[in-house]
Write a structure and sequence with these properties.
heterodimer; A: 328 residues; alpha/beta; Rossmann fold; two-stranded antiparallel ribbon; globular; B: 327 residues; 7-stranded mixed β-sheet; 5-stranded mixed β-sheet
Chain lengths: 328, 327
């Protein structure tokens, strides 16, 4: 059954709303900091920002425990931050520094921080679903009540990994959330032009999963749907698909030409539905300003910290290819 | 010492490790109540139940990716592909994820997973059920590649593979599954380490390195050659990544001649790698060029005469040695 969960949004305290707003703002300001750093040549590789999609990572991760885990995508900074990677460590990673969360091994698309349950952003579209199902399998085998999450985009929902993962998670009732961030373009290809059935929630139902179609720019709606799905998984009742509609307002990747596939009017229309702006409208302006100052200081410090972090030692380049020292 | 078949020995090793560690589980098609197409899990479903002997959909990419995730979270999956040809559907997962997670996480995540299945030509299985893929996987950093040739090794190496925190590609040649041989008692808990070659036959005239069934064929050829007064030394590397090149170099230092027999293809293969390393480090010990005998560079055909025309055999190995001695 497909619900439209935004109509069932629960009443919540101002402090809870402010916490969600604060976390979304950490993602937004960190991404803007990274975009500037990229333009200045400080980021050595690719940088795909999450601007416009913050409500999804934040709404889902606010329901997770520290020992729950997430797998992410090439657009994964928001998931890392929402799961607890400090902005300092994320920015340092994109700057290729030893202080980065992957110690300079990965950059934007290989962000690992197992300490906080962040099991990787990815340069390949699709595998996050399979690996999240596998982590859920291990949680079950260990008789724990931990929950595993896969974030992925509309592009991945056309990949075989999506279909194989949903099917296996369904037949084995694995404690996993599949969170589709349908930003409507698979890189620059419109999803509707490459989807035989563009209703992602219906695809979940096809495999017997409870599936919810959501306004992905409404953090409270995402939060409520994720809470239900997490409780469901923790209780041993199996997986859920959350199909969130959203929009990325910056280019696919920083520095790339953002034209020829969408109109300026379309981008502006989605900017008007900005998830931060929507939540801020229900908060006190002085509270919003106070959080704004706090987070700006946080990300300013994070960039300075990252710039002062040393580059990794070249002598460490062969470390950890294997569990033990490499054989000759 | 008691005797078991290769399959029985490997299965006993699997059962011992499943008994020892509740996080070991097996996935594959028909490995549950049925016990596996190649009898890899007969009797285990009754002992360990469906969560640890998990029959899967036919979705090699899917269950390989799933098991990769499970290994990141502390489980020890054994992926039973039946035929290793089927693992090719999962190459993206194996090469992009399984092999790289330890490095990309800078050693904070481990990858204790075993990828096992049958390889090898025989029984007119034709091209989708006959492949050998040692070189393909040995090329990739982060993977261990193992090819046992005796029942004792099948058990001891599989136990090591399951306890290893590295991903292990475990290839079992079809021609060996029914082979009987001595295996120590279960309570011996014998583990055979990776990177430890075994000299299967000693000889002074020529070194033959065999990969998997290449060992069996080389031993048969050596008997023929012994009748002609030629004593071949036969080396079984047992694992190809890591590769025990020192044992091979030591042998070549005594014999001065090297033939490598490998049912996988020659170009960019394990044999080419061994030849390059021996040429690099053992050049002054060589009295003749290094020779390779491989399956000829074509897909594997069905009809027995075509199949036989493609692969190394005991007579072609014996002839290759005679040619090498004439150099």
């Amino acid at each position: 059954m497909i619900d439209t969960a935004s109509s069932t949004r629960s009443v919540r305290a101002t402090s809870e709303k402010l916490a969600l707003y604060r976390q979304m703002l950490i993602v937004r300001r960190t991404e803007e900091q990274l975009a500037r750093a990229h333009a200045q040549g400080l980021v050595h590789g690719a940088c795909h920002t999450y601007v416009g999609e913050e409500a999804i990572a934040v709404g889902v991760c606010a329901n997770l425990r520290a020992d729950d885990t997430v797998f992410s995508t090439h657009r994964g900074h928001g998931h890392a931050l929402a799961k607890g990677v400090p902005p300092r460590q994320l920015i340092a990673e994109l700057l290729g520094r030893a202080g980065g969360c992957s110690h300079g091994r990965g950059g934007s698309m290989h962000v690992f921080s197992p300490e906080v349950g962040m099991l990787g952003t990815s340069g390949i579209v699709g595998p996050s679903l399979l690996m999240a199902a596998g982590v859920a399998y291990a949680f079950r085998l260990a008789k724990s009540d931990r929950v595993s999450v896969a974030f992925f985009g509309d592009g991945a929902s056309n990949n075989g990994a999506f279909h194989e993962a949903l099917n296996m998670a369904s037949i084995w009732k694995l404690p996993v959330l599949f969170v589709c961030e349908n930003n409507q373009y698979a890189t620059e290809v419109p999803f509707v032009s490459v989807a035989g059935n563009a209703d992602v929630g219906a695809r979940g139902n096809a495999y017997g999963l409870p599936s919810v179609n959501l306004d992905g720019n409404d953090v409270e709606a995402v939060f409520d749907a994720a809470r239900t799905a997490v409780e469901h998984a923790r209780a041993g009742d199996g997986p859920t698909l959350l199909a969130c509609t959203t929009y990325r307002t910056r280019a696919h990747s920083e520095g790339m030409r953002d034209a020829g596939y969408r109109t300026r009017e379309e981008v502006e229309a989605w900017r008007a539905r900005d998830p931060l702006k929507r939540l801020a409208d229900s908060l006190e302006p002085n509270e919003v300003e106070s959080v704004e100052r706090e987070i700006q200081a946080l990300v300013d410090d994070a960039l300075e910290w990252a710039k002062s972090s040393p580059y990794p030692d070249p002598a460490s380049v062969l470390d950890h290819v294997y569990d033990e020292a490499p054989h000759a | 010492m008691r005797e078991l078949t290769f399959t029985e020995a490997a299965r006993e090793g699997l059962a011992e490790e499943m008994e020892r560690d509740p996080m070991v589980f097996v996935v594959g098609e028909g490995i549950g109540a049925r016990g596996g197409n190649f009898a890899t899990t007969v009797g285990l479903f009754e002992r360990f139940g469906p969560e640890r002997l998990r029959d899967t959909p036919i979705a090699e990419r899917g269950f390989t990716g799933l098991c990769t995730g499970a290994a990141m979270a502390g489980a020890r999956p054994v992926v039973d592909y039946m035929f290793f040809d089927f693992a090719l559907d999962a190459l993206g997962e194996i090469i992009n994820q399984t092999s790289k997670i330890q490095y990309m996480s800078d050693g904070r995540l481990r990858m204790p997973i075993v990828l096992r299945g049958c390889v090898g030509i025989g029984s007119s299985a034709a091209t989708h059920h006959s492949g050998s893929y040692y070189s393909l996987f040995a090329h990739i950093p982060g993977l261990r590649v193992v090819a046992p040739t005796t029942p004792r090794d099948a058990k001891g190496l599989l136990k090591t593979a399951i306890r290893s925190d590295d991903p292990v590609v475990f290839m079992e040649h079809r021609s060996m599954l029914a082979l009987r041989g001595p295996v120590p008692d279960a309570d011996a808990d014998e583990l055979i380490g990776f990177g430890e070659a075994c000299v299967r036959r000693s000889g002074k005239d020529v070194t033959i390195v065999g990969i998997a069934n290449g060992v069996t064929l080389a031993l048969a050829a050596s008997e023929t050659l012994a009748g002609e007064g030629v004593e071949a030394e036969v080396i079984d590397p047992r694992s190809l990544a890591p590769l025990d090149i020192d044992t091979i170099l030591g042998s070549v230092a005594r014999t001065g001649r090297l033939l490598i027999v490998d049912e996988d293809y020659a170009p960019c293969g394990v044999g080419a790698e061994i030849a390059a390393q021996v040429a690099d480090r053992g050049f002054n010990d060589l009295d003749a060029p290094i020779r390779r005998l491989n399956t000829r560079h074509a897909p594997i055909p069905y009809s027995p005469p075509l199949e036989q025309a493609l692969i190394p055999t005991a007579p072609t190995i014996a002839q290759a040695v005679r040619d090498l001695l004439a150099e």
